[in-house]
């Protein structure tokens, strides 16, 4: 994790000590920075600067999942930032307003699904705009890329549409195309990938005598199984109807929870020929919904998307990139994408 800057050996309030990581022959510097958003709230972040000899004049702004902090789940955003800085990238990670070390308050009295919906509606867009403006004022002559994870993809996509001339490309991890389902307190919503996992888990226990003892003892969650089964059956029915052409799908998104505001911003990026890398964890609801509602119904239907969009599927990877092999794969895919952009520019 990021240590308090006093522990890093600060010379003064701005300059962090030089610390050696990953490669003994390379150095990076970390600085604490403060950005003020339009509401006057101070957003606190960590700026990682590469050694001048390897600096590639590319800045990447990280925007983390939902209401997470700049370190990422399990500290992986810090690790990714350090590795990228080590090979020449300048990385900025900032706590969004109301999270981590930043000022501001998250709304009280709402549940997690409602809070996720606010994030997916762009409640942190203003923070992203403030950070973009700060970076472009501090780093003239640099290329600027935005990296988002889940809800961070929403913030970065919406903000980039308003700062099109400043952005050189985007990296989107676990890109959410549908609003989070709300459900109720008594019956929380079950997403399609989770429903499939639950049903398969129960089916594997069908021939296990111990599972029936759990049913009799009341330890099995039959309400969850029932809700999950209904979701799975609904998915199968939709697929059957579409194959039989009983239901005509429109030429584009048609899901009731589709995020049209993000889609509108995304199309602006495409029309302005901004390169986008989608990083898609295999074991993730967002990827399943992305494939069904976005890849199948939008991206694969029009050639214009082929020129700008790249896709990196991350096998055996969960939403939070928790495990080391997944983090290594994520890092390699990011580097490969940047290398392709550099070759195309020659």
Order of helices and strands: EEEEHEHHEHEHHHHEHHEH
Q: Hey, roughly how much beta strand do the residues contain?
A: 15-25%
Query: Which geometry do the CA atoms define?
Result: globular
Give the class from helix and strand content and strand pairing.
alpha/beta
Helix-residue proportion: 40-55%
Main sheet summary: 9 strands, mixed
Give the overall average pLDDT.
Answer: 82
Describe the strand arrangement of the main beta sheet, using strand numbers: 1-2-3-5-4-6-7-8-9
User: Low-confidence runs (pLDDT<50, min 5 residues)?
Assistant: 1-24
What is the straight-line distance between the termini? 38 Å
Radius of gyration: 22 Å
**Total beta strand runs:** 9
Q: Count the helices. How many?
A: 11
Notes on the protein architecture:
The chain has 346 residues and is α/β, with parallel strands linked by helices. It contains 11 helices and 9 strands. Helix 3 (125-138) crosses helix 4 (151-162), helix 4 crosses helix 8 and helix 5 (192-204) packs across helix 7. The radius of gyration is 22 Å and the shape is globular.
């Amino acid at each position: 994790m990021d240590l308090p800057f006093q522990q890093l050996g600060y010379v003064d309030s701005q300059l962090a000590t030089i610390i050696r990581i990953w490669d003994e022959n390379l150095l990076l510097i970390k600085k604490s920075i403060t950005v003020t958003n339009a509401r006057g709230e101070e957003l606190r972040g960590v700026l990682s600067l590469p050694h001048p000899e390897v600096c590639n004049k590319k800045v990447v702004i990280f925007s983390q999942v939902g209401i997470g902090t700049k370190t990422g789940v399990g500290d992986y955003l810090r690790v990714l930032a350090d590795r990228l800085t080590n090979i020449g990238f300048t990385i900025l990670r900032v706590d969004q307003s109301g999270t981590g070390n930043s000022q501001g308050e998250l709304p009280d009295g709402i549940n997690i699904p409602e809070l996720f919906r606010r994030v997916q509606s762009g409640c942190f867009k203003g923070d992203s705009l403030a950070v973009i403006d700060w970076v472009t004022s501090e780093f003239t002559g640099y290329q600027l890329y935005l990296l988002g994870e889940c809800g961070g993809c929403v913030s970065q996509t919406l903000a980039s549409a308003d700062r099109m001339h400043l952005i050189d490309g985007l990296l989107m991890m676990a890109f959410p195309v549908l609003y989070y389902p709300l459900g109720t307190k008594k019956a929380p919503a079950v997403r399609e990938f989770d429903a499939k996992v639950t049903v398969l888990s129960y089916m594997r226990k069908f021939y296990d005598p111990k599972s029936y003892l759990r049913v009799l003892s009341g330890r099995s969650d039959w309400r969850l199984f029932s809700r999950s089964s209904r979701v799975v059956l609904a998915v199968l029915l939709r697929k059957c109807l579409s194959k039989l052409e009983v239901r005509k799908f429109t030429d584009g998104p048609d899901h009731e929870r589709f995020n049209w505001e993000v889609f509108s911003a995304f199309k602006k990026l495409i029309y302005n020929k901004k390169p986008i890398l989608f990083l898609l964890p295999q074991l993730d609801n967002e990827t399943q919904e992305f494939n069904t509602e976005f890849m199948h119904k939008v991206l694969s239907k029009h050639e214009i998307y082929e020129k700008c969009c790249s896709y990196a599927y991350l096998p055996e990877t969960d939403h939070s990139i928790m495990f080391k092999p997944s983090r290594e794969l994520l890092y390699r895919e990011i580097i490969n994408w940047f290398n392709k952009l550099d070759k195309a520019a020659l």
